[in-house]
Amino acid sequence: MNISSNAGRVTNIECIFYRGIGFALLIASLINLYVTFRYFIKRYYHREHHVVSNRLSPIMIGMLISSVVIIFLAIPVALVQCFTCRDYSSLEILCKLHGFICFTTGLFNMYMIALLSFLRYFSILHKSNWFNRFLENHRNLNTLLCALLSICWSLPPLLEIGSRYVPEGTGFYCSLEWNDPSIQSRIYVLSVIFVNYIIPFFLIIFTNVRVWYTLRCLLKSCYNSYNYRSLPVNSCIIKANIISSSYIIDNKILNIEIRKVLIDAQLKETTNRLQRLQIDRRYAYMTVMMAAQYFLVWTPYACVSTLELIGQTTFIRQYPFLPTFFALFAKLSIILNPIILIYTSKMVHS
Predict the structure, then answer these.
(1) Domain-wise residue ranges, the chain
(2) In what residue span(s) does the G-protein coupled receptors family 1 profile domain sit (predicted)?
């Protein structure tokens, strides 16, 4: 949507909304910087005992870096516009930079959440699969590939290939030109929506539902096995005595002792398995919570962008602040994702 048609049309009520979201962005950014500082300090001084799993460290570091990038390069301009209720993104260079940073970090966070879901899915349902071994053995490479993939999608509009970054809504936010009627723009925008939103959306839902169902069945089976194997030792001794009644007394005692040792070993193995499954369930809960907040925040903006894409712009023209408001609100997801990941990981290990 072109800024020339909407600039200067911010009402007092819309200004209140913008200042509210600006205040939320400011608070979230300060909290993020505090958490990021503490995380890297603890990681540096307590390398052996830092509170998060080594398995998730590359994902956490990637999310933290992406959030810091958007906080320092995109959020300041957005805050000034929100608090003053004026558009300062009409400069082409500033708009391109703003759109490129926001689009890149948004895609990167989507890939990180998908990576978390795939880690849970393959580690629980396909532990011996080659793809699971690849994810486990190349944690840093996975994060780097996600970053490169997000840049590959966000770089063409910066060079005005396929699409371009233009001010959107009331001009406080720059994004893709969703309503460009050219064929190459339609192909690019449809590819972005299909590959980077629709496919990950259903894959994340599928993997998390399968993980929850599998963990539920495994935990139920493990609890039943645990209750069965934790019978009193006396009952096991009596059963052993009945079975071994035809043997001499020495063989009876030996049978009882062997049975007791086997029961203790099985009970210990079942207990350890139950603890691992409970940890897996907490990880699954963490992944579901992150995915839910991401889609909850980004879905309104995706719906508005889709309306622009298919040409249904009557509602958007009546309320031009909605695309901008939803886009600014979506930035909260990029800032909050690493905070949620760090603190939910602490809960897993507590």
Answers:
(1) 3-201+296-349
(2) 31-341
List the structure tokens of 227. 């209750």
What is the CATH topology of the domain spanning 3-201+296-349? Rhopdopsin 7-helix transmembrane proteins (1.20.1070)
Q: In this structure, which amino acid lies at residue 286?
A: M
Task: Write down the residue that tokens 């096991």 correspond to.
Answer: 236
pLDDT tens string 226-245: 554 444 444 443 444 444 44
Rounded to whole angstroms, what are the CA distances from 349 to 53, 112, 188, 300, 345? 8, 21, 43, 34, 6
d(CA 296, CA 289): 10
Compute the Cα dihedral for 82, 88, 92, 98 and give only its sign: negative
Distance CA 161, CA 168 (A): 19
pLDDT tens digit string along 240-267?
A: 444 444 444 444 454 454 455 444 555 5
